[in-house]
Fold these 3 entries.
Entry 1:
Amino acid sequence: MIEGVKIFTNVTLVTINNVSALNRGHIFRKLSEAKINLDMISQSPCFGGDITLSFSLPDVDLAKTLEAIAEFKKEYERIEVHIWSNNIIISFFGAEMQNSPGIAASVFEAFGEVKINIVLVTTSDISISCLIAKADEVKAMKMLQEHGLI
């Protein structure tokens, strides 16, 4: 059961392709040293070799993030960086979500019904976070109201 919804605005999504799985820690260390607080973190499956990392952060930290990644890119030239700013994150949470099958299905169906693309999803046993374009914010708020979530 969803007990609450939290909305985060002014979010940037960074995706880095061609990262050696053994070097993912170096990227996060450089971001940490630059005092950048990340929110959502997602990694493609690793079957030995390269991975794709995606993470979100406040739009205001984008310049510092680009500087940190530029330093990393000097060492690992093969990486490709993609930036998408001006997003929002909608997080659904509830202690009983872990004992309630179908919550994810309901969340994804609700977004699909109003034709909102979820760009990135992260979950835990008590939360589901969905990153969407800010352009879809009004539709998302209406959807949340219609489902009695806000």
Entry 2:
Amino acid sequence: MRKREPHVFLSRRYQFSASHRLHVDALSPDENRATFGKCNNPYGHGHDYTIQLTLSGPVDPVTGMVTNLADLDAFAAREMFARFDHANLNMLECFRDLVPTTENLAAEIWRIFAEYPHATLERVRIEETSKNSFDYFGASSLSKTAVSNL
């Protein structure tokens, strides 16, 4: 009988800076200001986002790792940093029809890292400010923790 390898959750943090303006063309200027407050500044504003990815998988019996962090970092550089670091989110194709809120950014980062081939994406957490963070567990399911807290 083969020994079953442990299944482990790995979290990795990344940081990038980006700007955005929260605005909906269909709303009046007053409605936009009431909805988005200072985040509706016509010149936009920026954040130093902290992204925490949680991935899982079996521990490789040879390397002792869920995934090679160099592979994960290279994927993050190519797929996330190249798109978002020092970008105006409003100008990106992925936000052409979406308000570039951090909620929508979390869903977009999920879409990107769901394609990472060496581990299973479990959660995307984005810290926008010291007061605001957002967790996304994928479109098709709520986390067991979130469901149990409903």
Entry 3:
Amino acid sequence: MNKDSKAKLTVTINKKILENAKKVAEEKHLPLSGAIENFLEFFVEPSVYCFKCGRKFTSKEAEVCTKCGWMICPHCKVCGCSLGEETLRAVFYMRRTFEDLLIGRVK
């Protein structure tokens, strides 16, 4: 992605959310436009870290395991099949919360 080419984005959101987001962005010394851009970049091309080797990869470059339904790390070839049930459950609900956030189901 060319970081030099920028486009103006106009959106309408809840006023209180915008006020709070501006406060948090200021506390983190991050421009609000940067937070929005990071979110949209992830929304378009999600990337994750392998729980085994720790390397980052995009969902586009990973195959999905037919047994467990998880992405197979393109680096170390590990999927969710190697995890215990309790860990799988914890990761599933963390991911579900994150996905809800991405599509607006978390209030």
